[in-house]
Automatic annotation (TrEMBL):
GO BP of this protein: DNA topological change; DNA-templated DNA replication
Name of a matching Pfam family: DNA_gyraseA_C
Natural source organism: Candidatus Nanosynbacter lyticus
Protein name (Swiss-Prot/TrEMBL): DNA gyrase subunit A
Binding partners and assembly: Heterotetramer, composed of two GyrA and two GyrB chains. In the heterotetramer, GyrA contains the active site tyrosine that forms a transient covalent intermediate with DNA, while GyrB binds cofactors and catalyzes ATP hydrolysis.
Gene Ontology cellular-component annotations: chromosome; cytoplasm; DNA topoisomerase type II (double strand cut, ATP-hydrolyzing) complex
Protein task: A type II topoisomerase that negatively supercoils closed circular double-stranded (ds) DNA in an ATP-dependent manner to modulate DNA topology and maintain chromosomes in an underwound state. Negative supercoiling favors strand separation, and DNA replication, transcription, recombination and repair, all of which involve strand separation. Also able to catalyze the interconversion of other topological isomers of dsDNA rings, including catenanes and knotted rings. Type II topoisomerases break and join 2 DNA strands simultaneously in an ATP-dependent manner.
EC identifiers of the protein: 5.6.2.2
Length: 832
């Protein structure tokens, strides 16, 4: 038993035999997984996700169009049930589920996704807000005209066919595609490890670029881009290109920024609305409205009263209503930044070359592949037509022979039974095909043959054969046919561009870009409340008017400073304690004429008892040459280079050291060679050249500018740039005049000056003396009670030094002039 048991034991060496001996392949789990995943990846890439560069279609799109064409479901055929189309495609060509096929067909019919729709839908095919289409049993469709052009001549052996999934049908490998559909409608797809994102373009521009490349294969990208301006989205909008867009057309990867088209309209109640009429590609209007409401609730955007979608009948109209005192352009720019009104489209022009090789391509390479494809289509179509023409001509030549011997042919046919074709061939020298064609005709037709018709058709066929042979004999002739057919497509389907191309890059928003650039008036009260208003808020009046109700101030608070500046200008704030701060004008909160404004301490880091006493503007494009010339209330002056104030910290810088009881009040920018006029409340004025004051550092005290008499104080300091200037003198009770600067001779600094105006109880003390440049045309006067008047300087009389002036502003009882601002007409930058 032991021996028998041992005989049944298999030796270990036999168990460990090499697998090849038993026909078994050795594989690891890793290698099997790698091979399977690779096969799956290639299947997704080639058979599902990526378009072919030649016709711009994914397999499912191609199969849908081919099935519709094969069954005649194209105009003028009536639309057919979408479920019927889906069933045909799924049953014969695309066994991947009805929902995926229907979704793909719906996409081909949606005009907000396709620049040129390939399917014409009937019924509910969804909306651009993401609404789902109705079920396929409720909708109908047929092939659209442009879709038909992709299949033109497919029955002329122009493309290769292959077996379908079960070998029962044939399907095209690629469509003939009379237009470069990959550029016209673009594509988006995600494969395994790769993705494609191609924007749509304008047909006319693409045709022009293709023709230009046919004419000059060495054409440069920049020359092509003179034809193709950029993408042309079905929803329109503005496209900002620049270097990233050029890179996309050069390498296949890049980006553009898409911005909605919006206008600002004034409503009947004087408030404004933002009207959006074109939206970025793929944006949901409903989603935008929801986002606006979310931002308003989160207080990230203020001054929006309502947002709603008023779109109807294919026209986009989204309305954002603004509240009173809102800055429409500011809010619009905030919407661009925080919502989908501005998006980026990232190019990844990945497509299949020859149906098998995924490749990222630039514009020139895409057009080259399409041209090569069309050359092949035209060549194969011409060969097919030539073969058919020769076959028809051969038959007609046989019919002509029969016509020449009609009686004998009829007699031969009547006398023959089974061998009529052979007897015809032997007797008249006909081919088998010619004899069969004669025998296939009815006898009465054979007797009625008309020689002229046969000869005319034969002549036309010979001319056609000659033409077709000439085309096949020359590659240039084939290219000429490609050009002619492309231009015919342009004439037939070309339309106007929808997206406006702005050929520069739109970068990220800075705070400054969110603020519209416009002329403003900065108002500061003696209690240091500050606000910003628009110049247009002040209506020009004639002198002597009362003006309009302006800033509401608290008791004993009066307007102290009025400065005109662009919202993008810098403002330099000087305080009574001799310190300087700097802000952009738009950082001063905007408010209405009647609003009080905000306390300056909320904007600047002011010390207790410190107040702003002077504001000067520094225009955004100005250089740092020249000096800042300062004057104090007690007549001390000082000048310091502007560059010393280039970097102003948020907690301020020392501008001047002051004597006890003195305050810094006036600052002007000078060239280093200007004359200075200092005026006092008693009507004295002194003019001297600033060279009398040497440049000093920021912390210096300065020198005497004017010697003051008892109870007198400085009320103004200004710069003289030329004797063509005039001096505007305004007194507390609304009297004013203009006097020529040339009436004030220059003296040494430190004197008491000469008479600038007659001061009486009727006029009250002088409160402001300012020089007027030729470009300054208007003055803005503000009273202690907040009344404002804007008047032309030409309405203020030009008088001598020793006069009191004329009434330029009238007041209610107890009111008086508080401050004066001068304004120049300054054009705003376009597009702001």
């Amino acid at each position: 038993m032991a021996d028998n048991d041992n005989k049944n034991i298999v030796e270990p060496e036999i168990l460990n035999e090499e697998p090849e001996i038993r026909g078994i392949e050795k594989s690891t789990v890793e290698s099997v997984m790698e091979d399977s995943f690779l096969k799956y990846s290639m299947s997704v890439i080639i058979d599902r996700a990526l378009p072919d560069v030649r016709d711009g279609l994914k397999p499912v799109n191609r199969r849908i169009l081919y099935a519709m064409n094969k069954n005649g479901w194209r105009a003028p055929h009536a639309t057919v049930k979408s479920a019927k189309i889906v069933g045909e495609v799924m049953g014969n060509y695309h066994p991947h589920g009805d929902s995926s096929i229907y979704d793909a067909m719906v996409n081909l019919a949606q005009p907000w996704k396709m620049r040129y729709t390939l399917v014409e839908g009937q019924g509910n095919f969804g909306s651009m807000d993401g609404d789902e289409p109705a079920a396929s049993r409720y909708t109908e469709a047929r092939m659209d005209k442009v879709g038909g052009e992709l299949l033109a001549d497919i029955d002329k052996e122009t493309v290769d066919f292959r077996d379908n999934f079960d070998g029962t049908e044939k399907e095209p490998v690629v469509l003939p595609s009379a237009v470069p559909n990959i550029l016209l409608n673009g594509q988006m797809g995600i494969a395994v490890g790769m993705a494609t994102n191609i924007p749509p373009h304008n047909l006319g521009e693409v045709v022009d670029a293709t023709v230009a490349q046919i004419d000059n294969p060495e054409i440069t990208l920049d020359e092509l881009l003179t034809h193709i301006k950029g993408p042309d989205f079905p929803t329109g909008a503005e496209v900002y290109g620049g270097a990233p867009m050029r890179q996309a057309y050069e390498t296949g990867r890049g980006s553009v920024t898409i911005r909605a088209v919006a206008t600002i309209e004034e409503r009947k109640n004087g408030r404004y609305s933002i009207i959006i009429t074109e939206v970025p590609y793929g944006m949901s209007k409903e989603g935008f409205v929801d986002k606006v409401r979310e931002l308003v609730l989160a207080k990230k955007i203020t001054h929006i009263a309502d947002a709603r979608d008023e779109s109807a009948r294919g026209k986009v109209r989204v309305v954002v209503e603004l509240k009173k005192d809102a800055y429409p352009k500011k809010i619009l720019n905030q919407l661009y930044k925080l919502t989908g009104l501005q998006t980026s489209f990232h190019y990844n022009v990945l497509a299949l070359v020859n149906g098998i090789q995924p490749k990222v391509m630039g514009l020139k390479e895409i057009l080259a592949e399409f041209i090569k494809h069309r050359q092949g289509v035209i060549r194969r179509r011409t060969e097919f037509e030539l073969r058919k023409a020769k076959e028809r001509a051969h038959i007609l030549e046989g019919l002509k022979i029969a016509l020449d011997h009609i009686d004998e042919v009829i007699k031969t046919i009547r006398e023959s039974y089974d061998d009529a074709d052979k007897r015809l061939m032997e007797r008249f020298g006909l081919s088998e095909i010619q004899a069969a064609a004669i025998l296939a005709m009815q006898l009465r037709r054979l007797q009625g043959l008309e020689r002229d018709k046969i000869e005319d058709e034969l002549k036309q066929l010979h001319e056609l054969i000659k033409k077709l042979e000439a085309i096949l004999a020359s590659e240039q002739e084939i290219l000429n046919v490609v050009k002619a057919e492309l231009l015919a497509m342009k004439d037939k389907y070309g339309d106007e561009r929808r997206s406006k191309i702005i050929n520069h890059e739109l970068g990220k928003f800075s705070d400054e870009e969110l603020i519209p650039e416009e002329e403003s008036v900065i108002l500061l009260t003696s209690e240091n409340y500050i606000k910003r208003t628009l110049v247009s808020d002040y209506r020009r009046q004639n002198r002597g008017g009362k003006g309009k109700r302006g800033m509401t101030t608290k008791e004993e608070d009066v307007i102290d400073q009025v400065v005109q500046a662009s919202t993008h200008d810098y403002l330099l704030f000087f305080t009574n304690m001799g310190r300087i701060f700097r802000l952009k004008a738009y950082e001063v909160p905007a408010a209405s004429l009647s609003a009080k404004g905000v306390a300056a301490v909320n904007l600047l880091q002011l010390q207790p008892e410190e107040k702003i006493t002077a504001i000067i503007k520094h225009e955004k494009n100005a250089n740092d040459d020249g000096y800042l010339f300062m004057a104090t209330q007690k007549g001390t002056v000082k000048k310091t280079p502007v560059k010393d104030y280039a970097n102003v910290r948020t907690n301020g810088l020392i501008a001047i050291k002051l004597d006890e009881g003195d305050e810094l009040r006036w600052i002007k920018r000078t060239s280093g060679d200007n004359d200075v006029i200092i005026s006092t409340s008693a009507g004295q004025a002194i003019r001297f050249n600033e060279k009398d004051t040497r440049p000093m550092g920021r912390s210096a005290r300065g020198v005497r500018g004017v010697r003051l008499r008892p109870n007198d104080s400085v009320v103004g300091m200004d710069i003289v740039t030329g004797d063509d200037q005039t001096l505007l003198v305004v007194s507390e009770k609304g009297f004013g005049k203009r006097t020529k600067v040339s009436n004030f001779p220059s003296h040494k600094r430190g004197g008491v000056g000469i008479k600038a105006a007659v001061v009486t109880a009727k006029t009250g003390p002088i409160i402001s003396v300012q020089t007027i440049d030729p470009e300054v045309t208007e003055a803005l006067l503000v009273s202690q009670n907040g009344q404002t008047i804007r008047l032309s300087l030409s309405d203020i009389k030009l008088l001598g030094r020793t006069t009191q002036g004329v009434t330029i502003m009238r007041f209610s009882d107890g009111d008086a002039v508080s401050s004066i601002g001068l304004m120049a007409d300054r054009p705003q930058d376009e597009g702001k």
